[in-house]
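forwarding from the other thread:

> can someone predict this with zinc ion?

sure thing
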Amino acid sequence: NDPLGYTGSYETIVQIKDFDASERMKVLMDNAQWFEDHMPFMDAHKKKEVVGITYNVVNVAGEAGDASPSTPIGVNLPNSNWIRVVHGSKSVSLGNIVSAYDKASGGGLLSEFAHDDVEVARSESHGALAGKLHTAMHEVIGHASGKLEDGVGEPKQTIKEYSSTLEEGRADLVALYFMLDEKMVELGLMKTLETGKSEYDSYIRNGMMLQLRRLEQGADIEEAHMRNRAWISHWCFERAQESGAIAKVVRDGKTFLDIKDYEALRGLFGELLREVQRIKSQGDYEAAKALVEGYGVKVDQAIHEEVLTRSEALGIAPYGGFINPEMQAMYVEDGMIGDVKLVYPDDFATQMLNYSQSYGFLPLNNDYIAE
Ligand SMILES: [Zn+2]
C-alpha cells in the first residue's frame, strides 16, 4: 500500500499483547541468526549479525486510518534499511484478526478450488497453523533478513515503483522457503511438514487463481501484495510445469493446480529468493521491472473469468472489513472508572457516520488567511 515506496500515509492500531502466543513465537526471534545463515542468498547479501528482532502476537482493540476497515494481519517496522541494520526491527502479528479471517473464509472456496481431497484434509488439519507461521516468518525473519551491497541506495531510490512489491515478495519467499525445512519441526513450531505443504498448496492456488476474485474482469493487478503473490506463483509455475513439479489439471471445464513435488517447488522458491535478494542488494531496476511486469501485473483473461464465475457462485465476499468494538466507560462514582464495557456494533455505515459526527474536528474547507 505504498506505490511510491515512501511511507507517508497514516494508520493507528490499538492493541493488547497476547502473552501466551508471544511466548510460543519467541523461538523465531531466538533463532533469527540460524535462519539468516541458512538463507539461499549469495554470501555477500547475508547479515553477519542479525540484531534486535522482536516479535509479539497482539490482539487488536481498535484501528483507524489505513489500518481500517480493511486491516493488515501483521506490521513490521521500521521501513528504513539502515535503521534495521543498526538497531533491528520490530514485528507484531494481529492474532484476533488472523483468526477472524480464518473463521470467516469458510470451506466453500477450499473445496471448490483445491485439486483433491488430500489437499482439503491437509488444509483442514494444518491450514490455520500454516497461515500463522507464514505471517510470523514473513514479518520476523523475512523483512529482517539480508543486506544491501556497499554504496547501493535504499530500494525506493534504486528499484523505485517496484520496491514495495519486491520487498513483500522477498518476505513471502523467505517464509515459503523455510516452511518445508525440518528445522521448523525441530524448533517445535510445527509437528509435521504437512503444515508446510498446506501452505504451498494454498499459496500457489491463491497466487495463480483465487486472488483474482478481488479484481474486475479486464483489470491489471496493482496492489503490491497481490502483485507479489502473482509473480512468485507464475515464475515458479512456469518452471515447475516444465519439470512436472506442478500440473495444471482441467476437470469438467474447471482448472486445478496439483503440486506433485514439494521439494522441487521449495528449490524454486529458494532460487527466486536468491535472485530477488540480489536485485534488492544491488538495486537492479531492470531486473525488478522484468520480474514484476513479466509475471505480476497482467492477468490471463480466461482463468480470471473462470475464477469469478466459480467464486461468485459461492457468495463469499472477496475482501473482509472490520467494525471496531466500542468501549464505554462504566463510572462507579464521579470521575472513577470501575469497568469498561465492550459493545460490538453490527452496522458499518452507522459507525462511520458516528465517527464523522463525533470526531470530525477539521473544517470541510480551510479559509485562506491573508497576511
Ligand atoms: Zn510484509
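The chain has a mean pLDDT of 91. thats all i got for now
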